[in-house]
Amino acid sequence: MINILLVEDEQVLGHLIKEVLLLEPDFAIEWVTDGAAALDSVGKLVPDICILDVMLPRLNGFDVAKSIRKEHAQLPIIFLSARSAVPDVVKGYESGGNDYLRKPFSIKELVLRVKALLQHGNYTGAYTPAPDLTLAIGRYTFCTVSFTLCFGETKYVLTSREGEVLKALILHKNRVMPKDDVLNKIWGINTLFTSRTMDVYIGRLRKYLVHDPAISIKNIRGYGYKLILEDQA
User: Fold this and answer.
1) What is the CATH number of domain 2-120?
2) Coil, helix or strand for 52?
């Protein structure tokens, strides 16, 4: 059974989404109507995916997603919002969202996106956290589960997108990482918007990594990026 947490305060829309999702034989739905209740449900239910409205009572969806990411780095999150401006969409991804669906939307499209995210995450049953995996890069360590980047006593908690991009760069250390590959793997789509968004993430990662001069991220024009770790011997 796939446990879906639906967080939507509009009663009519919430009922409609729930009823349509329940037509899928393997879907079980937990529906709550405010941000605080969403966090409570995540702790109790540990859902396989979260459908999250942005404009919510008590705690907005962006803040809910940030809180979820602290404990559940790999939990898929789909934002629903009437806020369709590019800065809002970018904020959604930066908050930890995996997808952003603008209102009004087709319920059928929502169902397809839910299935796509579950498939992308290789759903095999109940959601279970991945085992801890820490990667070393220069004088930094990076936990690929909590997306925590550490430099001595300095600690950064990255968003899920930042973490996935950094993980890909580290695994391709000193090799060119094609932009198309990472866009398709992390975003699941390669468009002008996602390409520009990734450039923003690369800029942020450079700021996080500034403490170690042996580390740099180079743009390979027209192809991708290269995380360079200079020989410290």
Assistant:
1) 3.40.50.2300
2) strand
